[in-house]
Each structure stands twice: as structure tokens, then as C-alpha cells.
DNA sequence: CCGAAAATAT
DNA sequence: CATATTTTCG
């Protein structure tokens, strides 16, 4: 019977999250610099190249099928399309500049986290170790430590949930125990129910028996964690928090950005700061002003038209 | 290399 | 002060 349940969440998964453009207001560059040029697309801020930092992190093609008999890796895009100019087989050179540089704090955005969860789900809790996860994610710049750290937190989150999910968890609300700001990130991603209260399937040493892979084709992000992105996202995250759209008739909560009340933690932070909210923490290095335009669109329905596409031109 | 804890940064 | 992410230790 459980099997059916699993298939169910599986089917619902799609609706659970990716969805709406509302959730993807992030400005992912869909157009590569080269492409833009080819199409003669005038990049905004022409005079303002947004000299946002672009520490060229190392980018590895990530080769391995890490999965023995695992279905083809998710359509996770390898998130690398910068091979245009670097195609030169030069020595491999190897010189990935950025090997000993202190890379900026990694910001786990919902998208990244989703990728993380997907990877873990496909690997199965058993094989979900940092290294493997990292490889599956194929996110350029991601290090094993990044994943390990996040995994640690993720596990704690899962554990926490198990204890709170006393209501039989069946049917009612799968995951709605705590809405601490902390869980927001995790809430944004569908937590495979197998993870909860359920140990490795006996008799199976490998990945879960079934793993049809979810239809997350909506993934339209070319993820390349760069300082630029991080800054933008970070900035957004700070401003997000209250969205007046109480699931207007929806009924399904996408579980993200629509948490009505902030817990104490949130208040504490505000208390520390001024009610006027002027907390704009720009990273030290370049305090260039970004053209972020994430409008809460209060009032009627929201209007998500965030197109801050800027050239990742880094190659 | 993995996992947990301590240390730091925000 | 709390939380997120990094670095250190076992």
C-alpha cells in the first residue's frame, strides 16, 4: 500500500512546486552572452555592464554516471554553457583560477535546494552522501563541503519533522508542522516522503527501487553560482517575506513566500534593526546598485515580471 | 570521505 | 540575537 502512496506524491510533486512563474522570479539568464549578441539583443544597462563580481569559479564537466543502474541522471542541466569559447582543448589546463580563493558564502536558493533534494531522492538516502550528491547536482562551483553542510542541515530538518508529524501525517497536511523561517527553504522543496520515518529498504543496497524521476522539466535555470547571482538572490530573499496573496482561492499552497506570520525569530531580527527597514547589506567588494525589480505587487493579483536578465558574460 | 560540532559571517 | 554557511575535528 505504501507503494501507492509514494506514487501519489510523485504525481503531485509537480504541482507541489515548480510551477508558477511566481516561484521563479529569479533572474536566470536564459540568454547566453553569445546568443544575445548573435540576436543583437541589446542588453539592458548597456552603459552599465553591471560589473558585478564574477569570480570565475572552476567548472568541471562532471563526468561520471555515478549511478550504476540508475536511470539517466535527471535532466538536470549541467549548468554549463560557457564552453563556447573555452572549448580549446588546451591543456586542460588547467588553470581554473579560483582554486585557493575564498569563494563567497554559498546561498542556498530554493532552486539549488530543489536540485539538492532531487539528487538525494534519486540516490536514495543510502547513497546520498555529499560526494555523490554533489556530482549529481552538477552545479558548477558547488563543493563537496557545501553539500555536506547542507545535507547535515537537511537531515536535521527531516528528523525534526518526523517527530512533529504525529497526526498520522496521512492525508491532512503532509508537512506543516513548523513554519519557522528556517524551514522556508526546506519547505520550498518537496520532501520525498520516503525520507521520513523510513529507513533504507531492506533488501536493497542501491538506490530506491523506483525512481522514475520527476517531471521537473520546468527547470529552466542554468545554474552557475556566481557572486552576481548570489547577491541578487540574497537581496531578494531579504525582501521577500510577506506576500499578501493568501492563496486567493487556490487551495493549494505552493509553500513558499506565503507564510503569513513570521515567528519570533523574524521579529527579533526586526527589533534589532530599525522599523524603517533600511537594512541593505551589500557585499563589501562591489557596492554597485543592481536593477532588481521584484515587486510585491500588492493589491490585486500579483504581477511577476522580473526580467533582470543580465549578461553572465564571464567567459 | 563522511558526519557532527564549533566557529564565523550575515 | 538568531540563523545560515563554513571550517575543524573525530
TrEMBL record:
<keyword id="KW-0539">Nucleus</keyword>
<keyword id="KW-0238">DNA-binding</keyword>
<feature type="domain" description="HTH myb-type">
    <location>
        <begin position="108"/>
        <end position="159"/>
    </location>
</feature>
<dbReference type="GO" id="GO:0003700">
    <property type="term" value="F:DNA-binding transcription factor activity"/>
</dbReference>
<keyword id="KW-0805">Transcription regulation</keyword>
<protein>
    <submittedName>
        <fullName>(wild Malaysian banana) hypothetical protein</fullName>
    </submittedName>
</protein>
<dbReference type="GO" id="GO:0005634">
    <property type="term" value="C:nucleus"/>
</dbReference>
<dbReference type="Pfam" id="PF00249">
    <property type="entry name" value="Myb_DNA-binding"/>
</dbReference>
<keyword id="KW-0804">Transcription</keyword>
<dbReference type="GO" id="GO:0003677">
    <property type="term" value="F:DNA binding"/>
</dbReference>
<dbReference type="InterPro" id="IPR044841">
    <property type="entry name" value="LUX/BOA-like"/>
</dbReference>
<dbReference type="InterPro" id="IPR009057">
    <property type="entry name" value="Homeodomain-like_sf"/>
</dbReference>
<feature type="compositionally biased region" description="Pro residues">
    <location>
        <begin position="61"/>
        <end position="75"/>
    </location>
</feature>
<dbReference type="InterPro" id="IPR001005">
    <property type="entry name" value="SANT/Myb"/>
</dbReference>
<feature type="region of interest" description="Disordered">
    <location>
        <begin position="52"/>
        <end position="100"/>
    </location>
</feature>
<dbReference type="InterPro" id="IPR006447">
    <property type="entry name" value="Myb_dom_plants"/>
</dbReference>
<dbReference type="InterPro" id="IPR017930">
    <property type="entry name" value="Myb_dom"/>
</dbReference>
Amino acid at each position: 500500500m505504501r507503494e501507492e502512496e509514494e506514487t501519489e506524491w510523485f504525481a503531485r510533486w509537480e504541482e507541489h512546486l515548480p510551477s508558477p512563474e511566481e516561484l521563479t522570479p529569479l533572474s536566470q539568464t536564459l540568454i547566453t552572452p553569445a546568443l544575445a549578441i548573435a540576436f543583437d539583443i541589446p542588453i539592458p544597462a548597456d552603459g552599465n555592464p553591471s560589473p558585478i563580481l564574477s569570480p570565475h569559479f572552476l567548472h568541471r564537466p562532471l563526468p561520471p554516471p555515478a549511478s550504476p543502474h540508475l536511470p539517466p541522471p535527471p535532466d538536470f542541466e549541467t549548468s554549463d554553457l560557457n564552453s563556447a569559447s573555452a572549448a580549446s582543448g588546451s591543456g586542460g589546463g588547467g588553470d581554473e583560477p579560483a582554486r585557493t580563493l575564498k569563494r563567497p558564502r554559498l546561498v542556498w536558493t530554493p532552486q539549488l535546494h530543489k536540485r539538492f533534494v532531487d539528487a538525494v531522492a534519486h540516490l536514495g538516502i543510502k547513497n546520498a552522501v555529499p560526494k555523490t550528491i554533489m556530482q549529481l547536482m552538477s552545479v558548477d562551483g558547488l563543493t563537496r563541503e557545501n553539500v555536506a553542510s547542507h545535507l547535515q542541515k537537511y537531515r536535521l530538518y527531516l528528523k525534526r519533522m518526523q517527530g512533529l508529524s504525529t497526526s498520522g501525517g496521512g492525508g491532512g497536511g503532509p508537512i506543516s508542522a513548523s513554519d519557522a523561517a528556517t524551514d522556508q527553504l526546506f519547505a520550498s522543496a518537496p520532501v520525498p516522503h520516503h525520507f521520513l520515518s523510513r529507513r533504507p529498504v531492506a533488501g536493497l543496497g542501491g538506490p530506491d527501487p523506483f525512481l522514475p524521476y520527476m517531471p521537473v522539466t520546468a527547470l529552466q535555470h542554468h545554474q552557475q553560482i556566481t557572486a552576481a547571482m548570489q547577491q541578487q538572490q540574497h537581496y531578494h530573499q531579504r525582501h521577500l517575506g510577506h506576500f499578501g496573496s493568501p492563496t486567493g482561492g487556490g487551495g493549494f499552497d505552493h509553500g513558499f513566500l506565503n507564510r503569513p506570520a513570521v515567528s519570533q525569530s523574524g521579529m527579533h531580527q526586526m527589533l534589532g534593526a530599525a522599523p524603517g527597514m533600511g537594512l541593505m547589506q551589500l557585499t563589501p567588494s562591489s557596492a554597485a546598485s543592481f536593477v532588481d525589480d521584484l515587486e510585491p505587487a500588492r493589491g490585486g493579483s500579483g504581477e511577476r515580471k522580473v526580467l533582470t536578465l543580465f549578461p553572465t558574460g564571464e567567459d
